[in-house]
Amino acid sequence: MENKIYWGSYTSNELANLIKEDPVVVLPVGAYEQHGPHLTLNTDTDIVLEITKEAVGKACSTGIPCALLPPLWLGISEHHMSFSGTITLRQSTLTAMVFDILKSLARHGVKKFLVVNGHGGNMAALRYAIDEVGAHCEVEPVLVTYWHLVADLVARLRKSEFGGISHGCELETSLKMHIAPEDVRKDLLRANVVKGNEYWSPEMFASNRVAMYKPYRQLSEYGHVGDPTKATPDFGEAVFKAVVAELARLITKMQKGDLENENC
Amino acid sequence: MENKIYWGSYTSNELANLIKEDPVVVLPVGAYEQHGPHLTLNTDTDIVLEITKEAVGKACSTGIPCALLPPLWLGISEHHMSFSGTITLRQSTLTAMVFDILKSLARHGVKKFLVVNGHGGNMAALRYAIDEVGAHCEVEPVLVTYWHLVADLVARLRKSEFGGISHGCELETSLKMHIAPEDVRKDLLRANVVKGNEYWSPEMFASNRVAMYKPYRQLSEYGHVGDPTKATPDFGEAVFKAVVAELARLITKMQKGDLENENC
Amino acid sequence: MENKIYWGSYTSNELANLIKEDPVVVLPVGAYEQHGPHLTLNTDTDIVLEITKEAVGKACSTGIPCALLPPLWLGISEHHMSFSGTITLRQSTLTAMVFDILKSLARHGVKKFLVVNGHGGNMAALRYAIDEVGAHCEVEPVLVTYWHLVADLVARLRKSEFGGISHGCELETSLKMHIAPEDVRKDLLRANVVKGNEYWSPEMFASNRVAMYKPYRQLSEYGHVGDPTKATPDFGEAVFKAVVAELARLITKMQKGDLENENC
Amino acid sequence: MENKIYWGSYTSNELANLIKEDPVVVLPVGAYEQHGPHLTLNTDTDIVLEITKEAVGKACSTGIPCALLPPLWLGISEHHMSFSGTITLRQSTLTAMVFDILKSLARHGVKKFLVVNGHGGNMAALRYAIDEVGAHCEVEPVLVTYWHLVADLVARLRKSEFGGISHGCELETSLKMHIAPEDVRKDLLRANVVKGNEYWSPEMFASNRVAMYKPYRQLSEYGHVGDPTKATPDFGEAVFKAVVAELARLITKMQKGDLENENC
Amino acid sequence: MENKIYWGSYTSNELANLIKEDPVVVLPVGAYEQHGPHLTLNTDTDIVLEITKEAVGKACSTGIPCALLPPLWLGISEHHMSFSGTITLRQSTLTAMVFDILKSLARHGVKKFLVVNGHGGNMAALRYAIDEVGAHCEVEPVLVTYWHLVADLVARLRKSEFGGISHGCELETSLKMHIAPEDVRKDLLRANVVKGNEYWSPEMFASNRVAMYKPYRQLSEYGHVGDPTKATPDFGEAVFKAVVAELARLITKMQKGDLENENC
Amino acid sequence: MENKIYWGSYTSNELANLIKEDPVVVLPVGAYEQHGPHLTLNTDTDIVLEITKEAVGKACSTGIPCALLPPLWLGISEHHMSFSGTITLRQSTLTAMVFDILKSLARHGVKKFLVVNGHGGNMAALRYAIDEVGAHCEVEPVLVTYWHLVADLVARLRKSEFGGISHGCELETSLKMHIAPEDVRKDLLRANVVKGNEYWSPEMFASNRVAMYKPYRQLSEYGHVGDPTKATPDFGEAVFKAVVAELARLITKMQKGDLENENC
């Protein structure tokens, strides 16, 4: 049987066969929230969908049993609600969704799950959900926020200073320039770098020593934080390719059971 | 401003402007569940996504302020869980999702919502959700299950007898033949007509006098109910076009406030 | 053992015996809400109690094992709360009640349940409850809203036009004239016919193509919708007798297992 | 306006007037649970309904604004579930019901509520509910378990020793002999006196120093505890009349605001 | 193995051994709420902690297997929230905490639990929690509010009249004078005796015939109720020693299984 | 007014004054879970309580308005439940507790909260709770896990290799040797270093790229992970002092509002 990318493009009988091969099922989770004056609301969902599509396709093409679920296209965005159009779930709703999906598949015998997150605000609820699934479904789900896979590459290639990559920033704008340039309002790019301090920074790659709740209006009058004026399609393409490669590698290792080993 | 189809393809500032025009926001809800040996799991979601995309596009093109949300791609499918691959939400989870989405948009000033359902099993939870939104958000949402808009046309054109249109049936198979023929396993079509009785029938257009809970395994050893052997791309196209036209008309009437009037 | 009507009029040991006979247990659900200037708040509960009492009595008298629970006397009436005196449950509360009752009896071995509804506003929550029971209790409950059993007779005998039978209407007023004439304020009858439109009508027998949430104040300044001036005790009696006969027949068929068959 | 007993026997407009008189609204709560070999499942509900009906009627007849709601006919009976036929709510369900009812009426302006309990197992959930209502509805509900109003009279008139009045006991059996003798299986009366110890006793009038959870099967192989062989219709009548008088007096004092005073 | 007082002062392996001895595990529950001008917020928690520490120590020293959990230091204090500093849980939160703790230990094989309460406002939620644990964990928890163990001694020794022992009163102030005199503001003692009436009194040892919800501001402009001017360290010491002795005796009887017997 | 350490050692009126000074309120959160053969169950709670007591005392002594709440002594330990004695909350319970406490104090006007966590397993639930408080209480809580404040010092002083500091490890054992040597079973120390891999490691200071749910039995047959054989009281003391100093500094900066600034 030729492997397809989407769980939904199989029939039930075909899935019964796929499940026997011990596949990794991938669930992308994004957001539908404001991203400043220059990016569209679909930014997080769009990015996470494109990278998982490519990554699952790549893993499939090397014979690794895996499949992609459609994205959960909205997440936890209460802190962005003062900017128009933003849609948010309660944390309990997102948690319930992830639990129900993984629980359903666990009932059919799926053992390996990779939840790929594309929105910082989802982290607490997704980690909470993963712990619920682990505690009650007898499977061991893995959660990754995509940029954590490419910290080194981003550090090497970024043009903005610390505080320039956060939300609607050099990184997200570059990724959208690569994936969907029609969603970038190029005439509205402006820098809004917020460095933070020794305890906490909104910078995506900060190692924060404390966690805080910040309504976004306090960090930005425009809605975004970071420096989208430094964004380029080339940086976007480089990040995109690196994330896809890393995700495909992670899926492969999960499917082979290597994630359980010290020398993985 | 040119109207786009997707809510997510606007920036926050653009949506602030769109909201001033009193748009109809459309939320499609599908399912990810088994559809017999011949149809893929994405059937309901795929259909409801394609029809809402066309319908919103059509309404937009005539200047009606409206926008489409991405689909809730899974629904209530507990009664299908004995068939592999099916994913189900608890009813409380689906209800919470719909509530959170509409509540978020209501906070931004959106007043008009059309929830378009593509799966029979979702009806109770969606109606429940609509009532929660109505009671707590000071908006008046409208819920439609797409086939209820084209009962007459289907009655006129269908080839199968009563009981032939239900689940993975003449209608759904025809729609998929039109929209995504690669998802139809044509060599695996077989009839499984279930007429029901004077109280209850699984037929999609039955006027049931009672409601019952039926695990699908009791209705079908294959997973589907109805007669997909009667399905044709032509019937699929005719239904598709009619649903799109009716949805666009409904969106238009909602936006103009005509749904409040007796002579609408 | 002589069969009694009420579950509560048996001792525990007697019920252990009754349960061995595979009885149908009937749960009536009403409402305690305003019904315009001319009908009392108990209207829905009173009607559904009287019809189930008669119907269970009738079935019992022909030797069919069955029993009646007391009514859930209040339901979902949030949309009537702007009219004084109305009591409403949250939907989650009604759902929990029905679940707990049926689950309790399922634990004792009861397999057959008929929930008889007398209030339109309860439909979503009751259907939701039935689906929860079906999914978690290994029984197959049946739900009926009483007027759905006598659509033909009502169509034949009604005097009011379309829109005349809805809430505190020709039908409900006639039923109360038959059952409890002291609850009808005959000097306060006035017509308030609301026809609705091609999508939705409050008429009880409308085949609505969409579902909407409507605060009742929008439909009626008086509280009722329909034409109680056309009500007569004779029409009430005819409907009452027909509903009772149909319910007794349904209970009988359920007890014999005929509802599972196509030729029932 | 002549005062009626039942809230449900008024129209909405009539209730708007009644509410202006600052009525006491009475909510009886019973149970549907096993009561040994000799009493029917409706025992608690039947008793609490009859006493509240008489008491509200008596208060009404002296011009005190008050009204009776239908009973919540089932309560918390998990500890009786090993005896057939028993129906139980989860505690959260009963709490939600009482909250919803009192909250609804508080929204209409009702300020005075008397919840009359007839089942020991309901006490925790009802007290919990009363505290929720008090904390969130700006009214001050009163809760009474009926036998607490007549401790002195019972002590004077009872024939059974300590441990003889508990569940399906001298008191409940006597009350049913008075109210509904057809529900007493007189040939099946047997004593099952459980005295308990210095910490805890199932005796209805014990001043227990600790609270415990006891599955009823541990206290009684028959289902009841106490001595129904001592029951008489005369004792039942005396208790009934005393409870009614005390309840009517309590309603009267509540309505006049005397319960707030030290010299009430 | 020498018995220690605290569950937390054992290692996991040591607890595995202790559990084999069928220990009584004691959970103290207090409150963090205002106690008038003269007592600190820790009053209830401090008292209940000191008495359980002494009592468990005493039982341990006589070879009874038992252990103490740290206190739940806050409880249900919504009715005190108009006085600054008070912290309250929702009732559902306290119930969940007690349930989770007892359920966890029940999973390890602990069978005997004694919940020792030090705050009147916790009673409904704790009784509710005990019933949940009893219904779902196959253990039989015991709940005691400490002053119920020493009613006779208090009656004999108290100086204040009825209404003088309630909240921040003669009894609590005396106990704090004995346990932690630095927490008593001796210059701010004033009497605020509230007798109540025949139905309800805030007096700690009243046999109330009804339950009511009372915001504390209605009972006291100062925050406390009762007569702390009558408090003495000697009374505090006498009560303290009596409670400790009674608790140690109760733990001993529970561990030996005597609480199940009539002659305990 | 002399500042005290504990919130509970003030009266209500004194707290009303303290709140006017805009204090930082500190809430320690620990766990009651197995820590291998050599450490007691109170390890996390004991540590977090001692460090917060010292830190608040230190800040108080320099005139910074602040106060300490008693610890939440148990947390999320489901993954440790296969080791005897462990107590766990559901995540929803811990979240509710933190929410209720902070919400109560926010109602009195407290604006600044520092939640100090001492258990890795609590992170998701605490972050979730912080986000709920931030979204609903109009305050901005700060969350810190204590070891994140002293990463540099630990790196400098530790003797164990990577994987040696995790759970019941060099760090926790050293801290207990300093704080409570009687809780360390010195004869039972043994190394169980788990390095993990490039994606995930149980090492406390690992920068994990993915999150996983791991039942602890999979990581350790003994219960602990890391190398307690390298533990010394001196290392414990150094870490303890550094954490205390950092916490006091953080409290001071929070109280002065410096955490909002880039140059803090």
Automatic annotation (TrEMBL), chains A, B, C, D, E, F:
Where are the annotated coiled coils located?
none
Q: Which is an annotated Pfam family here?
A: Creatininase
One GO BP on record is: riboflavin biosynthetic process
Which coenzyme or cofactor does it need? Zn(2+)
Which keywords fit this entry according to its UniProt record? Answer: Hydrolase, Metal-binding, Zinc
- GO MF term set: hydrolase activity, acting on carbon-nitrogen (but not peptide) bonds, in linear amides; metal ion binding
Q: Which family does it belong to?
A: Belongs to the creatininase superfamily.
Under what name is this protein listed? Creatininase
